[in-house]
Amino acid sequence: MNERVVVAMSGGVDSSVAAALLRESGYDVIGLAMRLVASDVHSNGAASHKRCCSYEDFEDARRVAELMDFPFYVIDMRAEFDANVVTPFVRSYLAGRTPNPCVACNQFIKFDELLSRARALEANYVATGHYARIVRDHAGRYHLMCARDAQKDQSYFLFMLKQEQLCRILFPLGEWTKDEVRRKARALGLVNADKPESQQICFVVGTTYDEFVARRAAPHEIKPGRIVDSSGTVLGTHSGIHRFTVGQRRGLGVAAGEPVYVREIRPESGDVVVARREQLADRGFTACNVSLTGAFDPWPSPRTFKVKIRYRHPALSATVELLGRERAIVRFFEACTAVTPGQACVFYQNDEVVGGGIIETPLRE
Amino acid sequence: MEIYLDYNAGAPLRPEVREALMNFLSGEGANPSSVHRSGQRARRILEQARGQVGALIEAAAKNVVFTSGGTEANNLAIFGALRAQAGRRKVISSLIEHSSIINPLKAAEREGFNVKWLAPDHDGRIDIEQAIAALDENTALVTMALANSETGVIQDLAPLAAAAREVGALMHIDAAQALGRMRLSVKRLECDLMTLSGHKIGALAGIGALYVRDERRLCPLMFGGPQERGIRPGTQNLPGALSMGVAAEVLAKNLTNEINYVTFLAERLRSRLWNSVPGIKLNGPLFGRIPNTLNCVFPGVRGETMLLALDLEGVRVSMGSACAAGSIEPSHVLLAMGRSESEALSSLRLSLGPQLTVEQVDQAARIIVHVWRRLACVDTSHSGAWQ
Fold it and tell me: Which of A39, A244, A333, A349 matches a 20 to 30 Å C-alpha distance to A296?
C-alpha cells in the first residue's frame, strides 16, 4: 500500500499545490483543514464578513481535494489554538513583548497536535505548504534547510522542529519557487491558483493587533504609563504597553524634535523608553525556549552562526552560547538595532537551520 | 466496501423510488396547476403522493402540505402557528430539539415571544408532567420532536398534546426522524401539526410535508399562488413529492417487517460492540428509542478522529452536527442530557436502515472495533509518542 500523508490545507495555493504534488507522486493523501477560530455570527443570525478559517477557504480546499480525488475533512482545533496560540499571543503583548504566533502555531498545532491526529489516521507523514526543505543525511539525521526560493523561505518559522518531527514531515514546495507553484496550480486547474497571499496574522482580521489584544484582556491587565527618554525625561503618556513594539517609530504621539524609536518596554512600571536611532544598538540578547533540530550535537562553548532576529531581516553573524534549560546567549559581531523581545531568533549555518529560540532580554552594556 | 450507517442524516434512495423517478423523468414535464391534460396528469401524480404520505400517518390527503423539507415544515409550523394564535406569547419546547426548531424559536424570542426550554433527564427524556405543568392560557404552541434525531429517544407526546388542546395551545410534533422508524398516527397523537421529511425515508432531499389538522389555525409564511391551499404557495416539487409518496407507500405496506429487520440489525451491531468495546455506553435508554439509532460513547477516543478513521475504512457514521464549513461541534443534545464535553466529543451516532445487509452490519462491527482499539491505544500514549 502507498504511504499515507496528511496534508494541512488552508485553502491557499501553497498547501493546495503541496497536496496535489504528493497525490501525483503516488502518496495516499488525506487533506485536513483546521478550524482554528470561531466564526462570527451576528445576533440577528446573519453571518459576518469574511475572516480566516472561513467557509470560502475551506470550500477552495475541498474543491482541490475533489479535483485531485483524495479525501478531505475539516477538523476542529479551536480549543487547542486558543490555548496554545491566541492566549499566549495576548499575554505576550500585555507583558510588553512582540510575539510571533506563527511560531507557536507550528510548534503546538501543526507539528504536534496535527501530527498526533495524523498518526491516529495511520498516516506516515504530515505535509504542509511551507517553503523549506528537509534533507536526510547518510547517518540518518534530518536537516532543516532553507527553501530554494529565497524570497519565500519560511524556515525561520520552523526552527522548533526536532528529529522526531522532521522524520515525519514533508515540505513538497521546498524546491519550488512561488511562480512555479502558481504555474503548477494553473496547469492543474486549481480554483485558488491566483488567490492573493495572506500577509497578516490569520486570527487578527479586520482589526489592529492592539485592539484585538485590548478586547481579549481584562481591563486591569491593560498597562498604561509614561513615555520617557533614556535620561528619564517624561515626554508623554500612553494608554497601554501592548500598543508598542521595540523599534517602532510611528504612532508614539511625542514631539521630540527628531525621530525617536521605542527602545525598551518596561512592563513593571509601564514606561515606554524611546531613543534616537543610533541609540537602539544592542550587543546581543538572551534567548529562552531554545530548541535544536538535533542534526548536530549541542556545542559546549560559544559557536558562530548567522542569526536571524526577524523574519524579513538579513541574518547577522553572532556567537551562540548554550546555557542549558533551553536558554542561550547570543552575541553579535557588530551591534544590531531593535532586538525585539518575543520574536524568534533562528541560528543558521549556511542554509541550514540549526535551532532557535525566543528573544528574552537584549544585552545593552 | 462502503457501509452506510448514517440513515438519520439521510437515507439512500429506495429502489422503488428510483424506478418511479426514472419513469417520471423520462415522461412529460408539466405544472400541476395547469388546466390542460398534461397539467392534470401532473396534478394526479401530486395528489396521489399526498394521499400516500397522509396514509402513512393516518391523515387525510387534504391535511398534508408539501414543503421543501423538514426545516421549512418546522418554520412554517412555528411561525405560522404563532401568527395565528394572536395574543398568546408563550412556546413550550426543549433543549434537545433539532436546529430547525431551536433556531426559529430563538428568532421568535427576539421578536418578544417567551420560550420555555425544557431540559431532558440523563436518558434524554423530557418530563412530560413538567411540560404539562408549564401550559397556560398564554401558551400558543408546544413544539417537540417525537424521536430525537441524535439519540433516537422517543418522547411520550400524546398526553402533552391532549393537555395542550385543553388550554387552546397548538401541538406541533417534529416527526422527521420518527417517520418510518415507528408506527405513527396523528389520530392517536392528537396533534395539530406534524413535520415529515422525505430524505429520511429513502425519498429525495428537498421534499417534506407538514400535516395541518386545521388550516384556519396556521398563517402562511410566503404569499403567492393558490398551491397547497395557499398555505405554501409556489409550484410544487413534483419529482420530490412523487418520491416521498412512493417511499411512504412502500413503508405503509412493509412497516412492521422493516422495523423488525432494522431492530434485528441494530441489536446485532450493539451486541457485537458491547462484547468487544469495554466501557462503551449508550446515550439514551435501551428501550424507548427508535430501534435504528445507536448513539454511543466510545471510551478513550476522540469521536472526530474515529469518524474520519472509519470513513477511510468505508464506514459512514456521524457525530454531533456539522458547521457550515464541515467541522464538528459537540452535540447540544448530549450536553443537555448531562454528558460531559469529553463524553459528547467521544460519542458517535450509528443509524441503520432497511437497505443494510447482515453481512454489512457484521463487517461494520469488525471495523468499528478494530478502529476503536487502534485509536484507544494511540490516544493513551498521545503526545508522548513522538516527542
Answer: A333
